[in-house]
Amino acid sequence: MPVLGGFHHVRLPVSDVGKSLEWYTRVLRLEVSIEFIEDGVLGAVALIDANRTLTLALREDPQRAAGLAGFNALSFGVPTMQALRVWAGHLDALGVEHSGIAEGSTGWLIGGIIDPDDMEIRLFTHERRP
């Protein structure tokens, strides 16, 4: 029986890879893993978290990025409620608007984090009552 072991990476279209690179590294604390230079121009970048548990690739493709505007395509897992509180403080310190911590259908979340292409990102924990 074939077995899957999680995601290798997720690729998102963005309208401006440089602008999105700055936002995702500053706001979500992701680090550059690989840069894809095409004809002397940065066309895509792979980002990785500090624990090396997830990879997010950003590919410059303005038309497709526009199609995701207003959509919640990404929800990242956060291990505990305390970690979710730390994220809320980090977002507040950066002046990044968000929903605050709210109860979701399977735990707690922070929603309303909007990336440069107007795509909503959420942070979830499966931990129940704080």
Key terms:
VOC_core; globular; Glyoxalase; 4-stranded mixed β-sheet; Glyas_Fos-R_dOase_dom; Glyas_Bleomycin-R_OHBP_Dase; 130 residues; 2,3-Dihydroxybiphenyl 1,2-Dioxygenase, domain 1; alpha/beta
CATH class: Alpha Beta
**Overall residue-averaged pLDDT value:** 93
Number of domains: 1
Query: Strand share of the residues?
Result: 35-45%
CATH topology, by name, is: 2,3-Dihydroxybiphenyl 1,2-Dioxygenase, domain 1
Stretches where pLDDT is under 50 for at least 5 consecutive residues are: none
Explain this structure.
The protein has helices spanning 17-27, 62-67, 81-94; strands spanning 10-14, 31-38, 41-48, 55-60, 74-77, 101-104, 107-114, 120-125. The longest helix is centred in the C-terminal third of the chain and has 14 residues, at 81-94. β3 (41-48) and β4 form a beta hairpin. The chain contains 3 helices and 8 strands; from the N terminus they run βαβββαβαβββ. With 130 residues, the chain is α/β, with parallel strands linked by helices. It starts with 9 loop residues before the first strand and ends in a 5-residue tail after the last strand. The protein is globular, with a radius of gyration of 15 Å. The strands form 2 sheets. Strands 1-4-3-2 form a 4-stranded mixed β-sheet. It has a single domain (10-125), classed as 2,3-Dihydroxybiphenyl 1,2-Dioxygenase, domain 1.
Write a compact overview of the structure shown.
This protein is of the alpha/beta class. It has 3 helices and 8 strands; from the N terminus they run βαβββαβαβββ. A hairpin with a 2-residue loop joins strand 6 (101-104) and strand 7 (107-114).
